[in-house]
Each structure stands twice: as structure tokens, then as C-alpha cells.
Design goal:
The protein is α+β, with helices and mostly antiparallel strands. It has a single domain (about 5-10, about 30-155), classed as 60s Ribosomal Protein L30, Chain: A, CATH 3.30.1330. It has three helices and seven strands; from the N terminus they run H-E-E-E-E-H-E-H-E-E. Strands 1-2-7-5-6 form a five-stranded mixed sheet. Strands 3-4 form a two-stranded antiparallel ribbon.
Length: about 160
């Protein structure tokens, strides 16, 4: 059975990707009580980084927002895996944390991470509204332009 989240994504012409494997010695998600923690996800598509580089250098704001959106899709794919395919087990998105690979003078981190925030609200409705941080970094794993982590509350 398709979850309400996947139906909403389908209406937007989006589908959840296959879950990418961790790039290091960690697990992609951890359940603790009624919380689900999703490790940082990069803009991975078909086993490769779709958007690499740094904002303020060779990646535009629009590309950064698209990268954040891909990160959010990968977050939801990891959540689906953690919940044995049942995204309806998500009660709400509690928090997103966004990292933006950028030059020292780039200051539009929040606009970039809006790509992930907007996707979460589109997918989950009001339950997708969340606390958040958005910070810059000189580089991110595998050269990714963006990385986003998440915390969800479970039913």
C-alpha cells in the first residue's frame, strides 16, 4: 500500500530513490523511542553525486536548492527503509540540519536548504514543518554541494 507521503510526492511527479549505502562506518538511521534519526544524506542519484561543488563558486543557488531537494528525497527513502516500507509511521518532521559546501563569502545557506524544507512540507503537509539549521562548510563528503540530516517523530 502506498503511503500518503508517497501519494503526495507522486502528485508532484517525484518518486523515492533506492536507498544509498553509507559512505563510512555508520548506520543510515537509528530508532530511539518515538524518534527516528536519519544520517546526513547527500544529493545521490543512481549511485552517484548529482550535484557537486561549492555554492558561490561553481554551483548556482537553484542547483543548490535542487541538491537539497534530492537530499530530502533520500531522507524519506531512508525513513521508508527504517519503517519497513511504511512511511505512514512518521508523525512529523521534528528537525532538519543542512550543510552547504560554499565559499567564505556565500551567505544564502537558508535559501539553499529551503529546497529540503519545501519538499518536506509538500510531502507531509503541516507535519512536515520543522525546526532547522543551515550552515556553510568548506567541503562535504564525496564533493557534494549539500548534505541534510533529519529527525522524525513516530506514531
Amino acid at each position: 500500500m502506498t503511503s500518503a507521503i508517497e501519494r503526495r510526492l507522486g502528485e508532484l511527479g517525484l518518486t523515492l530513490p533506492e536507498v544509498p549505502s553509507p559512505a563510512g562506518n555508520y548506520v543510515p538511521w537509528v530508532r530511539s523511542g518515538k524518534l527516528l534519526f536519519i544520517s546526513g544524506q547527500v544529493p545521490m542519484t543512481e549511485g552517484r553525486i548529482a550535484i557537486a561543488g561549492r555554492l558561490g563558486d561553481n554551483v548556482s543557488l537553484e542547483e543548490g536548492q535542487r541538491a537539497a531537494r534530492l537530499c530530502a528525497l533520500n531522507i524519506l527513502a531512508q525513513a521508508r527503509a527504517a519503517l519497513d516500507g511504511a512511511l505512514d509511521g512518521l508523525a512529523r518532521c521534528v528537525k532538519l540540519g543542512g550543510f552547504v559546501a560554499c565559499t567564505p563569502d556565500f551567505t544564502d545557506h537558508p535559501k539553499v536548504i529551503n529546497g529540503a524544507s519545501d519538499l518536506m512540507v509538500a510531502a507531509m503537509g503541516e507535519a512536515g514543518r520543522h525546526a532547522r539549521f543551515a550552515v556553510g562548510a568548506p567541503s562535504l563528503p564525496l564533493g557534494a554541494a549539500v548534505e541534510v540530516e533529519a529527525i522524525f517523530e513516530l506514531h
